[in-house]
Write a structure and sequence with these properties.
Layout (H helix, E strand, L loop, with lengths): L2 E6 L2 E7 L6 H17 L4 E6 L7 H15 L3 E7 L4 H13 L3 E4 L2 H9 L1
Parallel strand pairs: 2-3, 3-4, 4-5
Antiparallel strand pairs: 1-2
């Protein structure tokens, strides 16, 4: 499942796998699934997003920013992103300016998981 929980070193992490989001439609569907997971959470989340090869355009970026402000901003304790480079880095910087908080970039999933549970 693209939006699911994984356990790392005894702690639960919301894992958002965007590697198969190869179209605007699929990316927007995954944003909806992510929003639903955030809304169902009863405590602050540790969030890992794998965005390697994810599809992003102006529509997806705008929805990410909207959801970031409305749903994601205050519901995460820490966030780690993997697979962000090139143009996505610019979009990511705009997103982090809106959402703020503990958001870090990593090249490796294991490093990102270790950061989240530390």
């Amino acid at each position: 499942m693209p939006v699911s929980y994984i356990t790392h070193k005894g702690k639960e992490i919301l894992y958002i796998d965007l590697t198969e989001s190869k179209s605007e439609k699929r990316s927007l569907e995954l944003l909806e699934e992510t929003k639903d997971a955030y809304l169902k959470a009863t405590n602050k989340l540790l969030v890992l997003v794998n965005s390697e090869g994810a599809y992003v355009n102006a529509v997806v970026s705008s929805k990410m920013k909207e959801y970031g402000r409305t749903y994601f901003k205050d519901r995460a304790e820490k966030r780690a992103f993997v697979g962000i480079g090139g143009l996505k880095k610019l979009i990511f910087k705009a997103y982090t300016n809106i959402v703020g908080g503990n958001i870090k970039l990593f090249d490796d999933l294991e490093e990102a998981k270790d950061y989240l549970v530390a």
